[in-house]
């Protein structure tokens, strides 16, 4: 992989940002499946977009990719077509609800781990074109710690861990934070507690994870917010319309909007020169060595 890494390094170092926009990369993950991670990712992206930010969602959940299904659209192309050089990065970007742009992953993310030198250079060249194109690139990863999920968590600037108040979900969320921390990578984690009955339950759940992380890992895990356990969410899934669009005045939608406002307030404070697609590719480079 040495030659591949060298080619990627040279490309990244010679590419600059487009204009003045900084593209921030976020990974959304969870310790276990079934916690509403993809639904959160989609509605969080739409909420950011409603505030005037340009957002691109990468569906990186291999085998269980469903961002397009949640929006009721069909994916024509995916990352697979890019890696095979059948399509460019611009040709695999598709539009869903409210013209939200997304890229379907499919088996492409698994192929990413086995790129030849030529394929890696092409991938880097294509992805670098997104630098400055959007404000946020959000990777919706698979649940748990697969090799693919782990690489995107480690390469992104920050990771949002979605969990629920269920004990198994809490345990698995902490496990994913512990695993990444044990590898010596400085990843900025944030918690989202989904399907809470009230703010008190959400705070209690977040405190359990935060206190244990502080005591045993010596790291601070801030809570981004809570999302109410609202019956309209399942109704929206059945209708294949994001709940923030189908039910704009629901408690779940209000939760997402409050959470997004909290994120933006913190985003303005923590923004650093190390953000962007260039930073992401540099970190990915180290992981591919």
From TrEMBL:
<dbReference type="InterPro" id="IPR033875">
    <property type="entry name" value="FlhG"/>
</dbReference>
<dbReference type="Pfam" id="PF10609">
    <property type="entry name" value="ParA"/>
</dbReference>
<keyword id="KW-0547">Nucleotide-binding</keyword>
<keyword id="KW-0067">ATP-binding</keyword>
<dbReference type="InterPro" id="IPR033756">
    <property type="entry name" value="YlxH/NBP35"/>
</dbReference>
<dbReference type="InterPro" id="IPR050625">
    <property type="entry name" value="ParA/MinD_ATPase"/>
</dbReference>
<dbReference type="InterPro" id="IPR027417">
    <property type="entry name" value="P-loop_NTPase"/>
</dbReference>
<dbReference type="InterPro" id="IPR025501">
    <property type="entry name" value="MinD_FleN"/>
</dbReference>
<protein>
    <submittedName>
        <fullName>Flagellum site-determining protein YlxH</fullName>
    </submittedName>
</protein>
